[in-house]
Each structure stands twice: as C-alpha cells, then as structure tokens.
Amino acid sequence: MSDWSEITRQILEERGASRFYSNVFYRDSVDSSNEWVKELGEVHFPEGTVGIADAQTAGKGRRGRTWVSPSGENIYFSLLLRPEFSPEHAAALTLVMGLSVAQAIREVTDLPVGIKWPNDVVINHKKVCGILTEMNAEVGKIHYVVIGTGINVNQTAFAEEIRNMATSIKIESGDNDADRGVLLAHVLLYFKENYLKYCETEDVSLLIDSYNDLLVSRGLQVRIEDPKGEYIAISRGITRTGGLVVECEDGSTREITSGEISVRGLYGYT
C-alpha cells in the first residue's frame, strides 16, 4: 500500500469500520477503478471491498465522459456493495455517496462545500468530485453495485475546457497539500453510516435533512433540461426516493427523477 492509503486503512481500523471495509486494496495505476472492482465483484469479493488507485488511465465519468486522473494528486476509488434490496432502489446510492463526500470535505477542511443535484460535489460553484454508479443485476435481484468516486484534492491545473467548472481542495483552501488518506477515511466512515441508514428504509428518508442542508440549488432558480422542453423553476429539495422537487412558475410542483439541471451561477449558467 502507499503511505496515504495505509493512513486510510489505519483510521478505519481505529474507528471500528475495518469489519465493514474488510478488503482495502491499492494500486499505483489502473485503467478504471470501477472496472477493477467490478472484476472483484464477479469473483465474489464481499460488500465493503474498496479499490484505491493513485492514477487511472481510462477513468470513467457519467454519460460516457472521461474522468482525467493524474497520479499523485487526487483520490480515485471504487466501492463494492451487495445490497439486499431490489434493483430499483440502487440509483439513489449515488446520492448517498455524494452526501458522504460533501460531509467528509466539510469536516476535514471546513470549506463551503455543497451538492448540485443529484451527485456533483461543489466548492464555490465549481465541481470537486464526480461519482459513477454501476450495477450488475437481474429482475428483482442485485448481484453487486460498484460506486466509483473521484475527488480533486491537490490538483492545481485543469484542461482548458473544464477550467471554469472544476476545482480542487488545494485551490479552494490555498493551503499545502491536503492529506488524501485522512480525507478518504472520512468519506468511507460517513458512507458506512449513511448506507446503513439507507438500507434500513431502502430510501433516503433518514438522510433528507442532511442532504438538503448541502443542496446548493435549494430555494434558487434552476433550469430543467427536459426532453419536452426546457423550463425555469425553483428547487425545493429532494424526496425520499432521491428525486428533486421543483416549483414551477404557475405554483405547481414536479419531481425530477432524471436528466440534468442547471443552477444559476453554477457551471457557467448565469
């Protein structure tokens, strides 16, 4: 293991979480941490298996996008889960991880972190974390879920096409390099707590208040990019299934369950 991932393992052990996270693996470089951990899922590694990489050569983002993953700077990890609930409840696990990352960053750095629904973690209106959840399932049964997470920790240079929308903890804090091992340990500790609550109810009802407290769009105008046409509404918070409730101009409310929203002041939308 690297020094920083060994710190993660030690903190998990000290905090009594090593039983849940019984397998914590590290590699200097992988093509994709999700692909690596999916392979572990296929050969029956248990829930709580974590694959940590210092770099990815083919990191994956949502909608087929690439997640640029330089070495020695950031956190890239994937987590294997084997929940007993039915497949339709798995999608909101992405929100659970987003909440956990935001809570960990807030505790470790005290930066003004927030969440752009459904799962983008942002600091000062710029994205600092991306999450990709993938599932292997059949009708009525989940074989495994893999949640891949990339957190921009100590990176200070970004490609021109994302420079206006991406940031890192180091950039926002202006401090020396943040301790990746400590931060990752706190992410995993928060996730374990939040995941157990999710499994208890099979929805985010026990996490709604915590999530909405960090939702950057709450009470603000958002642009909904709907296949039937874009419209402007007010974001009011999430439901127990993880959908976003918005209030339309006529006073009616809708629950957004998929697609993209743009928030005024975020990602260049003004």
Describe the structure.
The protein is of the alpha+beta class. It folds into two domains: 3-213, BirA Bifunctional Protein, domain 2 (2-Layer Sandwich); 217-263, SH3 type barrels (Roll). 27% of the residues lie in helices and 27% in strands. The chain has helices spanning 3-14, 33-42, 93-109, 169-173, 180-201, 208-214; strands at residues 24-27, 50-53, 75-81, 113-116, 120-123, 126-138, 141-151, 221-225, 231-238, 244-248, 253-256, 260-263. Strands 1-2-3-7-6-5-4 form a seven-stranded mixed β-sheet, sandwiched between helices. Helix 1 crosses helix 5. The protein is globular.
What's the helix and strand layout?
Blueprint: H1 3-14, E1 24-27, H2 33-42, E2 50-53, E3 75-81, H3 93-109, E4 113-116, E5 120-123, E6 126-138, E7 141-151, H4 169-173, H5 180-201, H6 208-214, E8 221-225, E9 231-238, E10 244-248, E11 253-256, E12 260-263
Parallel strand pairs: 1-2
Antiparallel strand pairs: 2-3, 3-7, 4-5, 5-6, 6-7, 8-9, 8-12, 9-10, 10-11
